[in-house]
Amino acid sequence: MTEDAEIGIFGGTGIYDSNFLEDSKEVTIDTPFGKTSDSIIVGNFKSKRIAFMARHGRKHTIPPHLINYRANIWAFKKMGIKRIIAPSAVGSLKEEINPGDFALPSQFIDFTKTRKGSFFEDDKVIHISVADPFCPELQTTVISAANNLSIKLHKNCTYLCIEGPRFSTKAESRFYRSLGADIIGMTLVPECQLAREAQICYSSVSTVTDYDVWAEKPVTAKEVVRTLSENVETTKKILSILPDLIPTNRKCSCEKALEEASF
Questions:
Q1: Is there a domain that residue 54 lies in?
Q2: What confidence tens digit (pLDDT) does each residue in 140-158 have?
Q3: The domain containing residue 153 runs over which residues?
Q4: Is 38 assigned a catalytic role?
Q5: Does the pLDDT of residue 115 top 70, yes or no?
Q6: Is residue 30 among the annotated active site residues?
Q7: Backbone angles phi, psi at 73, to 5 degrees
Q8: In this structure, are residues 168 and 93 in contact, taking their beta carbons and an 8 Å threshold?
């Protein structure tokens, strides 16, 4: 029997545990798309039933380009999850977005190359709308959480998603800046568009770890981990108050995303 939950959380780089959940249990869900990144921890947080999965695995063994995004989203869908909160680590493409800040993406630019971006491959063609890729109701909730905690959050950011796992060259980084992107990362796509196909509300919360290489400061994994470790507790504080702020009933259009997506 599949364990049910209301809210799903994908733990990004630096967020590998679910110790804020009570009466938790570990479940494994088989999917038509293969194995999920890790088993799923399901438990209670105040009045909500929460499911947690480490996007890269609990020991960070899965690089961004090899994450089985379809299996992860499909498993959450099978559990009855209606909303997904997705913390992640990003680089900054703007001087005013500093390492240590938080960013809320409202748009994305996709520079990934090899990833499976749809559940529908054989039986029908789906043209999902991602004109506004993120749930506005969830985004309002994230903004409220940041305000309640007096956390600096850059809103309405454009997230440029690259394939990874390598970091950008200087030429690439300058090019990405010229496109008007604000932050750069490796995991948002296709995760957010698959959530839309699954008719699940989705919002990302991004921790800014570095200035990418346009600022003539080479990016290293050690630098990313150092900034993340300093911000992990803040991210957990955001996650700890979000469930109570999320309304019980959805008033957005995410649950109707497939109604006009096929011919």
A1: yes
A2: 999 999 999 999 999 999 9
A3: 7-256
A4: no
A5: yes
A6: no
A7: -70, -40
A8: no
Looking at residue 94, which CATH number applies to its domain?
3.40.50.1580
| 1, pLDDT greater than 60 | no
Close Cβ partners of 92 (under 8 Å, ≥ 6 residues apart) = 98, 99, 101, 103, 182, 183, 184, 208, 210, 211, 212
Q: Name every residue whose Cβ is closer than 8 Å to that of residue 232 and which is 6 or more positions away in sequence.
A: 14, 15
Give the pLDDT confidence of 149-198 residue by residue, as tens digits. 999 999 999 999 999 999 999 999 999 999 999 999 999 999 999 999 99
190 preceded by cis ω (within 30°)?
yes
Give me the helices (H) in 1-135, please.
Answer: 69-78
Cβ neighbours of residue 235 under 8 Å, at least 6 residues apart? 14, 15, 87, 205, 207
Residue from 262, 7, 256 nearest 119 by CA: 262
Q: How far is CA 233 from CA 88, 141, 240, in A?
A: 14, 19, 10
Of the candidates 38, 101, 182, 210, the residue annotated as catalytic is 210
In contact, 236 and 15? CB cutoff 8 Å? yes
- Tally of domains in the chain: 1
Q: What tokens does 120 get? A: 């529908």
Phi, psi dihedral angles at 214 (to 5 degrees): -60, -25
| Mean per-residue pLDDT, 223-242 | 81
